[in-house]
Amino acid sequence: MITEIVTFQLKASANLSDSTSPTTQAIRRSLSVVLDKSEAPSAYYGQPKDKPDTVVLFVNWPSNDEHEQFKSSPSYQEHFGHMIAVIDTEKPITVLNVPFTPLDDPSPALGANGKVGITELIVLYIASSASPVDKDAISSSVDKMKPLMERSGKLEVCGGWALEDSIPNPAPQPGEEDKCLVHVSLGGWVDAQSHSQSQGSEKIQQSIEDLQQSKSVKHIMSELVKFHAM
Question: Residue 154: phi, psi to the nearest 5?
């Protein structure tokens, strides 16, 4: 399985927890086309906490080939037509395709099991010139965080490297390359309060800060996202 992750800005802020919102309805119509007219088994949409103008979509595909077949089908235009109506196309749109481990299907970390109420999304932007040794070192550092995440109260944890190798750095520094490799980690929490009260979250934050010291790590984004299943 491969998971497509799309992040974009809305033309107007909206509350995606409100099922009557025109924006929510447009997003749901768009994802319904994907699920009804492709082999994708599941899809999710959500917003980072305190960012009502931002949307994060997760679509699980059986394989990259199935995804590409849908993109070349007439149904893709129908899907895109619903979605483009709410997207601010003047702002960056990020598309990642990630094979997750140890959860091949990241749905439990997104709330599919009914236990997870909010998801911690951690995105590492790594210099595209990073060597295999650099990537292995970063993977090892992330792997060491997983037991901390689990002990701190996270219910589901998974991660993986995006297939893309030239994602724009959202916060480039002068003189630095602006294209990056990307690693995505997910951690499911009962709710935002359990995240904020977790004793282990301080150790996790320290681990993230340690990662920032790596010359290969160019930017780290950490968000709490409330996802909704289709």
Answer: -70, 140
The DSSP H or E segment spanning 34 is helix 22-36
Report DSSP letters for 52-81, one per residue: TTEEEEEEEES-HHHHHHHHTSHHHHHHHH
Distance CA 157, CA 122 (A): 11
Per-residue pLDDT tens digits for 93-133? 999 999 999 889 999 999 987 889 999 999 999 999 888 88
Spatial distance between the Cα atoms of 115 and 68, rounded to a whole number of angstroms: 32
Please report, for residues 113, 187, 189, 201, 224, the alpha-carbon distance to residue 156 in angstroms, rounded to integers and kept in the order given.
10, 6, 8, 15, 14
**What would the mean pLDDT of 147-161 be, rounded to a whole number?**
73
CA distance 199 to 64: 39
Burial of 109 per CB tally in 10 Å (0-12, 13-18, 19+): buried
Cis before 102 (ω within 30): yes
- Whole-model pTM: value is 0.91
Q: What is the pLDDT of residues 123-145, one digit of tens each?
A: 999 999 888 888 888 888 787 77
The residues, any chain, with a CB within 8 Å of residue 159's CB and separated by 6 or more, are 100, 101, 142, 146, 183, 184, 185, 186
The residue type of 218 is K
| Whether residue 38 has pLDDT greater than 90 | yes
